[in-house]
Amino acid sequence: MNREKSQTLWKRSLKRLGKHSTGLLGGFLLLTFIFLAIFAKFVSPYDPIAQNLEDRLKPPSLKHPFGTDYAGRDILSRVIYGTRISLTIGLVSVSLALSIGTFLGATSGYFGGWWDILVMRIIDIMLAFPAILLAIGIMAILGPKLTNAMIAVGIVSIPNYARVVRATVLSVKERDYISAAKALGLSQRRIIFRHILPNCLAPIIVQATLGIASAILEAAGLSFLGLGAQPPTPEWGAMLSESRQYLRYAPWTVFFPGLAIMTLVLAFNLFGDALRDVLDPRNYR
Amino acid sequence: MRKYIIRRILLVIPILLGVSFFSFILLRLIPGDPARIILGERASSSEIERLREELGLNKPIFIQYIIFLGKALRGDLGRSIMTRESVFKEVIHRFPATIELSLFAIILASFVGIMAGIIAATHPGSFIDTTIMISALGGVSMPIFWLGLMLIWIGALILGWFPPSGRIGVDIDLKVITNFFLLDSIITGNFKAFFNALHHLLLPGIALSTVPMAIIARMTRSSMLEVLTQEYILASYAKGLPKRKIIYRSALKNALIPVITVIGMEFGFLLGGAIMTETIFSWPGLGRLVYDAIMARDYPLVQGCILLSATVFVFINLIVDILYAFIDPRIRYE
User: Is the dihedral of CA B4, B6, B9, B15 positive or negative?
Assistant: First the structure.
């Protein structure tokens, strides 16, 4: 009964998503970026790290549509390969934050008591730092590296997921079917994972989609500060950082990587906003 | 009310202890001997031993934390490796520049954001509403470091209308009293310096205001839309009150309650955004100091900056919460 009802909920949401114009735009942009990331090798015209000093700082042309950077590397190819890195950063850091945050939020919401108090206090402390500052602090410990940037951004986002999951678990656990599951003597693990968490999926999906957007922005920021990806990795934030000093003479070296970050983040935000609209039961009329 | 405020203030204590513990542990978690990292590979063992003694690294970790906390409460956060100056002094000296920039940004963001939100909410579904909302989403998605560079490129390098960096022109003579340049120029009646400082504030201020502006516009719109369907608004229309009066007098007052919280929270977040903006615009504030400290691996300074910024952030949130309880009585009875 419950499963049938939830299937119609997902079906109905998918149908509504098909009619959501900005959501569709976000989805289309996302699919384009995913395509570029997967087929970067075939789509990009040049090797993203091959230097060609004769062609350094060339403005956009037919040969190099986005121009070349200070080492003569093709910016279009670097931007295309950068898609792969940024999407990986977003997915890895959000997966990290989501798994830890969901575990903490679900257990603290379900069990309550001292565990809930402890988890919520730690989360309050984490939220007492502006995100980028906390990430910088963690990077100071871990050292400047792309994988460390993913970990730092992931850790910083844990509170967002823990809070969303906890709030949803608190509302779901009082429902009759949970009391029934308890009365039937089901194990706590089974109740949490099979009966409570599936009912928290909608807010988690929305939070994760919007979370990927902020994770990409934060990681690019860390790379821009020299703490994330290191040269010659074609990461967008690192590309901006490397090209900053050529802004006066070769603005295209700065313009395109930044535009790429903004478009990808915008795509996730458009799609996430649309998901929030279609998955929120209050919007069913 | 008093009970709520006391409870909220007491809640700050464990948070501040946690914040101080994180800042403390930062230097201890860096792989290797903190004293050697601070002094560099060429330091002699006697120098390292002296610094270990100074930092209390030979004592048990719990005792080290108590000593660190005791010193921090007295404003002693150690010495910067770069300048050998007191970390506390360095940070406090840079603070006014960041606060001045953040205040400018939040005022700009609030004014434009609220206006845009009202216009969008009063024309729901229209072209102007869609344009404002897509721009707002674009603002949220904007990498602030990229926007800053684009503003320098267009505003300073192409048009030449704005200075690309700095807080005040090198040819301007200003007697520094509070280190808030706008305030100092007013106090001393130096209006040339005032307009020069304001001119320097514009580009970094716009860059820093974009994200909060977008968030404030979105919040104002949704809050306004909710209020506009309330019965007392419909009653005002039925009474024949002019639309402008209903929107700006009756609806806005209630719609702004959640917006004020967002403004307060965003002001706190600006301290984080300032790291990027100040780095790009060579703005001599706390954000730039954090960047320089990281680049120079000046860990005591990084530690001090993080501790003090987070403390200020906690207090801003406290003030916002208390103000919110004054504005919205429902909060204090929860």
Answer: negative
Range of the domain at B194: 87-327
**Do residue B141 and residue A217 have CB atoms under 8 angstroms apart?**
yes
Say if residue B62 is in the same domain as residue B150.
no
CB contact under 8 A, A225 and B152: no
Please name the member of A130, A143, A261 whose beta carbon is closest to the beta carbon of B313: A130
Which residue among A129, A251, A269 places its CB closest to the CB of B313? A129
Q: What SS3 class is residue A178?
A: helix
Substitution target from A119, A125, A134, A271 for chain B, most B beta carbons within 10 A = A125
On whether the CB atoms of residues A247 and B175 are closer than 8 A, the answer is no
| Chain A contact probe: residue of B141, B215, B294 with most A CBs at under 10 A | B141
The verdict on B66 and B99 lying in the same domain is no
Q: What is the CATH number of the domain that holds B261?
A: 1.10.3720.10
Q: pLDDT 10s digit of each residue in chain A, 285 long?
A: 455 555 677 788 888 888 888 899 999 999 999 999 999 999 999 999 999 889 999 999 999 999 999 999 999 999 999 999 999 999 999 999 999 999 999 999 999 899 999 999 899 888 888 888 889 888 888 888 999 999 999 999 999 999 989 988 888 888 888 888 888 888 888 888 888 888 888 888 888 999 999 999 999 999 999 899 988 999 999 999 999 999 999 999 999 999 999 999 999 999 998 998 888 765 544
Could you tell me the maximum CA-CA distance found in chain B, to the nearest angstrom?
85
ipTM of the prediction: 0.90
The answer on B317 and B259 residing in a single domain is yes
User: Mutation test of the interface with chain A: which of B98, B145, B315, choosing the one with the most A Cβ atoms within 10 A?
Assistant: B145
A105 touches A163 (CB < 8 A): yes
If asked whether residues B53 and B116 sit together in one domain, one would say: no
Which of B41, B73, B105 is the endpoint of a domain?
B73
Looking at the structure, tell me whether residues B43 and B110 fall in a common domain.
Answer: no
Within-domain flag for B317: yes
Partner A contacted by B269 (CB < 8 A): yes
In Å, how far is A128's CA from the nearest CA of chain B? 6
| β-bridge mates for residue B86, sequence order | B79
Same domain, B106 and B252: yes
The tokens describing B265, both together, are 């929270």
Q: How far is CA B197 from the centre of its chain?
A: 19
